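= Protein in question =
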Amino acid sequence: MNNSSFPLITIIVAVFNDVGTLQQCIDSVIEQTYINKELIIIDGGSDDGTVALLENNDTKISYWTSEPDHGIYNAWNKGLDSAKGQWICFLGADDYFWDEHVLEKMSIALHDTPPSVRLVYAQIMLLGTDDAALFPIGEPWSDVKARFKRGECLPHPGMMHRRDLFEQNGQFDESFRIGGDYELMLRELKKADAAFIPDVISVAMRPGGVSNAPSNTIEVLRDVKRARIKHSQPWPSFFWFKSASRVYIRLIFWKLIGETMTRKLLDLVRRLKGLQPYWTKTQ
């Protein structure tokens, strides 16, 4: 492949006190076979050794800074201010690219993506607490488009954002703590289409991130609701109420029979539906 004919891709990583996983994240970017890339890391003022790790990796990183911030979307916006790429993707410090060929595979699709499409994504691999691969998530846009417009989110880690999306639509809304990625996607996809890259797993995502922690599920739903009202999307949404009902029922069982038993019960239901276990694998 002639890499010079393919776009510069910026990878922006937000980190705060994640020294235990950050090196793997950095290595997964540096080891990509795709040449036209830059890595930007925004640290929120960590005190766990993250800064020393960044200093040790200084020659591998295009730009990094460490200072207090106002959350992940503030950090990502700081990264956007320094990004030079034609396409931009975002990772958490505990995410990493699934293999060294991810960007090379995705760049081929990006090169052929029409200008009207400004969000491109692939599947991501969910990991268990022991870092074992569980199963991939992410469906073709044609299958998920209607559900997204009713309130379901797309997998955001590793999603490629065309640069002019931010130039025309603005950066992340920092008033959101968890749902800012959904709000940004809704801002674009309420009137446009995304593109799905088949047969590619882009990113491995560990459990326990801000948006997928059980303690934050209610806030995720509230942010989805607020984003939909902000963008004049149909409300109330049956899909939202269905999701909220599941969350509240889960939390009620959490209190009645305990977290461990609830997780076992949830996975029993998943097995009865023919799905792989998840809850007992992500404690």
